[in-house]
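Form 7-S
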Amino acid sequence: MKLKRILSAVAAFALCASLAGCGASASSVAESTAESASTEAVSTVEEDASPETSAETTALRVAGLKGPTTMGLVNMLTADDAADLVDFNMYGAADEVVPLLVKGDIDAAAVPANLAATLYQKTNGAVEVACVNTLGVLYIVENGETVNSVADLKGQTLVTTGKGTTPEYVLRYVLSENGIDPDNDITIEYCSEATEALSKVQAGEATIAMLPQPFVTSALSQVEGLRVALDMNEEWQKVAGSKLVTGVLVVRKDAVEADADRFAAFMDAYQASVNAANTDLEGTAALCEEYGIVAKAALAQKALPQCNIVFETGDQMKTDLTTYYQVLFDADPTSVGGSMPADDFYYAG
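Output:
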């Protein structure tokens, strides 16, 4: 089993490097960074790229990015039958993964949920989403005791990242559904990265921030008095009636069709790996550090319970993704590739 760490000069990797000291990862600290880079990458891939057959390899060729979307995979990488099921490679940024998936150089990838929808549109339906692997990782933290509900955000100043990407759309949707005008009832200051947002809280320039895991866990240990005020998963579910989604596993349909039994075995092993990620925190955290998914095992172990690692398929997957995509589409159609995915986007098993 080989692990290929391919470094990139794009913004996602630069952010990862800047966060190495506090142990946070590029994908999780700025989900929006990966999404922005991946959207640009999709737009540069030729429409008529000829896919290579994936039947030549026995194991499913799977790509991962740093952060929560890949945490659920790590336990299957050390299983006795791992070499027969998965050929895993780690990449520094989504724009490296996109062309490989489009051309058929890899079979599947753990990616932000909106990127999966964009890839579906770009490949004319050649890919499908196999499972949701990560629910929401966004939390509102406060250095104080003012915020105990979304309503308490009215009149406040909140710092965050992700301007023009999914974190902004999620925040604006939750605020609006709670009767708060995001343009007039609250001041939202967007920072280029999570470290900048946190530095404003540390300096007393702001007391409230929306940040992702595992950065939240790291931040709580750095700022005395900082607490989690709101879980955006809970707030989303209250107003949307479904779960907030962050990451998915997207797979080429030809790879599934080439060997349906192989893919079914892979999915079984993936589910077992996710179960282990939620029960064996210490072992999973050690693997997250070993494979470069999170810089430090100690941080990963603390963050794992809040990273909402799941293995969600079938009707529940479709319901949660459809609701999520509709909110993104209403905010900016290009965030999901220009149109809502059709039914054949959802892997039926």
